[in-house]
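REQUEST
  id: r-88c1
  op: predict_structure
  target: C2H2-type domain-containing protein
  payload:
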Amino acid sequence: MMPFTCLQSCGASFLTERGLDRHQDHCEEFLAADEVQNTLPNALEIIEEKRAAKKRKREEESQALEAGLAGTIDEPSQDQPLISSPPTADVEMAPSPPSLTIMGRGARTKKPTWKLLERLPAAPTPLPPQPPVGTQENITVDDRDETPPPVTQLAWQAAVRTVRNIFGQYREYPTWPTHNPDDTVSLDDLSNTGTAPATVTSQSPAYTLPNDTDTSTADQKYHPFRNASVFWLMNWMWTGSPMKSILEMIKLVNFLKSDDFAKEDLADFDIRKETAAFDNATKFQPPDGSETASSFPNDGWIESDVSIQVPDGEKHTTDTIPTFSIPGLHYRSLVEVIKRTFSHLTDLHYTPFRNFWQTDGAGEAERIHDELFSSDAMLEAHVELQRQPSEPGCNLERVVAALMFWSDATHLANFGHAALWPIYLWFGNQSKWNRGKPSMGLCQHIAYIPKLPDSFEDDYFDRTGKPLSPELLTHCRRELLHAVWKCILDGTFMHAYKHGIVIECPDGISRRFYPRIFTYSADYPEKVLLSTIRNFGRCPCSRCTIPKEKIPELGTHVDSRRRETHARKDTSPRRFNIRLAREFIYEHGYGVKSAAVERILGADSSVPTENAFSILAKSPFNFFAMLAPDLLHEYELGVWKAVLIHLIRILVANGGNSAQAMNRRYRQVPTFGRSTIRRFSDNVAGLKKLAARNFEDLLQCAIPVFDGLLDDEDNDIIITLLFTLAEWHALAKLRLHTESTIRWLEQSTTDLGRQLRQFEKSFQRKLEPVSVAKHAKQQHLNETVRHLQRTRQHLQSEAGVGQEAEGEAQEELRGSQGEPQAAPASEPSPNKKFNLHLIKLHALGDYASFIRRFGTTDSYSTQSGELEHRMVKRFYARTNKNRAVAQMTRLERRNQVLIRQARTFQATRTPKGATKSTDPVSAAAPPRVHPRRVRPTVAFRESEPLPSTPLDFHHHISVSRNFPIHLHSFILDNEGDPAMEDFYDRLQDHLLGRLLHPDWSGGPSEFSIAERRELWIANDRLYRHKVMRVNYTGYNVRRGQDSINSRNHADVMTLAAEENSDHPFRYARVIGIFHVDVIHNAAGASKTPTPKEVLWVRWFQYDKSYRAGFARRRLHRIHFMPSNDPTTFGFLDPDEVIRACHLVPVYKLSATEQWLAGQSVARGEDEFDDWKYFYVNIFVDRDMYMRYAGGGVGHYQVALNDRRTSGPAPMATDEQEAADESLSRHRDDPEPSTSDIAAEQLRQEAEAAGADIIDDVQDQDVDDEHREELTLEEEDEVEDGSEDDDLEHDVGAEDGEDGAGDWADEEGYADL
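RESPONSE
  id: r-88c1
  status: 200
  body:
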């Protein structure tokens, strides 16, 4: 039986669909039926009318449901879980797609386009109105009549719940919040791509004028400046870049054009007098000062000296212990900083809550972990605060002020020894998305710690007659840090910590705020000082007392139990031991590292320094728990860097050109996103001048690069390890976690520990022969050098003979090794193995528990502080280098105050003479004259207007007509190219399908000649475009953006054509971005040309023969479809694009012409072949990872055949546990004092003892970590080349948000 049959009245049958089409082009029966079809009512209009009616009905039902739920409080019973039954919301189901035609061909499977499936980020549903107090049975309210509204007090179990939003998110509050800053959240606030330049977002740090400031006159409004002209000139002078750029000049010109400027206001303007008056208004006023109080909050800088006790090895009484005074401490009052922040900022959360995600009404809800103000730590502090007795006679709402500290030293200049050791503060009541933007100015500079002056060693020598030992120098530096913190945590702060601070908030309500310390972000050397433990001592961890010989047991259940049972706590016995040790040192003259002191403190590696944070121990407060994980230094610059160095060592030992092949492959890796993946350097193996973001990129692209460089057995071990390393990094850096993803992180930590132990064991034996040979060669070289030295000594008297003998020896040495070298002090070890005793490796086991308690890692990342270092470097550049720190404090105050005031009353008027933006079409230049033979790609040097993309758009393509193509000329010019086969027919079929059913997606549809004749393409022209921007909703319910062009960022992903496909996505390479003006000359259709945007693509095919996925720990592999397949080339509706994707060639397989022979317009001008296969890089950013792993809160849920398992980490068997323990106990080098451990200990102790903390090896390239210098050639790879693109973007954020990381700011996390 023939499978393809014409109409029953005709009866003709054919073997292929193409044969049927050719027959129907001339079949009279079919053409007659086709004319009848054109006279039928428009089925699309009928379907759309039915859909609209159903939608109205669903909206009415939803409104009725919400009206019934509003104002209710869920009160679960004792035996019912709190999160078991949240309010449900209706989910709109798409209607069944209509058939495309009623002719003989069967209806094709259709589904809505991705544009309709994806949802825009939505703010949390607002709270219902608070019910009357009398209706709340289990909410107790104080009956006292006070001016502020009474605050309800209730236990956490009686939670207030919000209605689920469209993503299934809802919140649970312990009390009725009196202020919810998320009520005014807009789409701009939920975007990582930024907004148009003139847009002011509601979630920006909204400052209000001080309540005692009268704004009725301009003079008072701009106090302490006389008028607007002076204020804006001072603002331009003291903010922004110290090196005035073109952008700074544009700001000045815009001000001169505005209505705020009047030249009469500057009649007697004097910059020196205005600056002096400004500094006087913002400086700190002592509480008992006689000066008139300033209208500004009293949060200025205080300068003082700080004293430390210096042990001199002699016996003393308590009163005669020698002290040394260090000048130059600059700090600010924490209480005054808190007052300033909470009295002026409106985007602060006063009431914590729990955030949940439930995809449907019947499923189990999952806890969401993201912000600090919705973390368990914040909730516990809030509940504990509500339970403690109120202040006498006070009925004010009690609020936790969440403090998040950061400190580290930095160099201020590229040359010289200028350095600064700052302490920064952020408030956890603010959103991390705002805190992560340095340009928002939300970071508070709390203190600039002085360093021990050069005269300290001289003073010690004069007192004792002995030089200062390295151990004593380290002890004094530690004493200095904690002496500074004792100044900061003064009596005023301690009173506020216990009794609170009454602050009138911007909403006019007074509240009592209690400061609480939550996190302290620092690198390992800084944590050692803060936790008062010995640097890489017997117990090197700042959070637990696990001995260093147990570090390799990462991921085992024994290790997890040890972290809980051996957690460090600031207990009374610990503080007693420290006081006893200090008595031995200061009063009895014992040494800092004497045997008596070590017997007291050596068991847990403590040091004889009283911790300043122990003053909070009675609260209770455990300062060890505040030390946050440091992903940047511990993983990217720690574990991964160590693995990469060992991999390079293995490639070098393997011989051949393996290392050079690795360098070549990294250079060939395509870039991705706005600097998400940048072009790699020529010599990656050299590891020169690489910052954290470079190591992150190296990890994300490592699998295709290292694949195939070694034999199959070693290759499997390395690729599996690299997959686990990349997955652990993606999970640890997620900006929104659920309980499922945290369990994945725990399981990944277990896998990573086991694979690193296997990695160390597998490659140790293979490196031994090479290391031994290299060791023997070095010994021969040493013997030759010693022989040369002896020859010189014995033949000095015979100059001629001696010179001849020396020359022969030198010649012999050059022939074997080159120039003579001195013998090393110690010969290298012949065994080179991977070091598992890294403290940074041990820290990986704490991430999951810390995320559960404090939120995601980006909230307390050290990247925030590294970026803030830019600000102090700008201040330093403005000083005259004479008492630079004091000048920097004044510059910091000017910058902060001016930024706050500018945002308070920023002018929104159009500057004088400024022209309003015009329509891009009218502003476009006339079409250019191009050579006859044109390509579908617009050259990078060409310019095309593309303004800022609205966030509610799915995609954005310019409407210019600067680059037209004449269709028939283009087809004739490329005749014979496989990509051009049936080009015109395919374009017509694609456009007809979209005209008839614009909201439906599906496979290609073939129309008859008569149907195609009804489609007219105006002027027979295609209009090429340079860039298409695609907005997408990420897993974290924030808007991201990709820029796609057909030159170097041309790969896109769409949903698979069939829902039961082997792979959920389909991939294509964009050959050209076009728009056409079409007219559908059919009955009832409009005769006005309709512009349609189309993508000309070359499709990829999923490689089913390659076993990939999470279970096999391999990347998915695809290849181009062969050119003889009629579906290889086609057209794609931009509405179907999900986002850009990163496809990396499989370098171990050579290029081929198998898929497309010869030169073609589907490739670049100089390309003649294709890579045989490509890897789909699922680790290019976190959003991409979550699309394949599943579980993204903001994602449209796609059926995944190989989704990441959501269960808990699998329990290891007894045999596995025993093997893990045996592996750590019976290693080749079982003693804890192995050569590697000893070398690492000596190196780190030398850093702490012989160099200042600012010389730590992690910070020596701090300027390189922030450097963002792109050459013109790099910009061709990174930027989209569009004009007027003023978006702020996270060029380091790998969510398309990163990093990179990283944040949504032009000064954001891109540079790390």
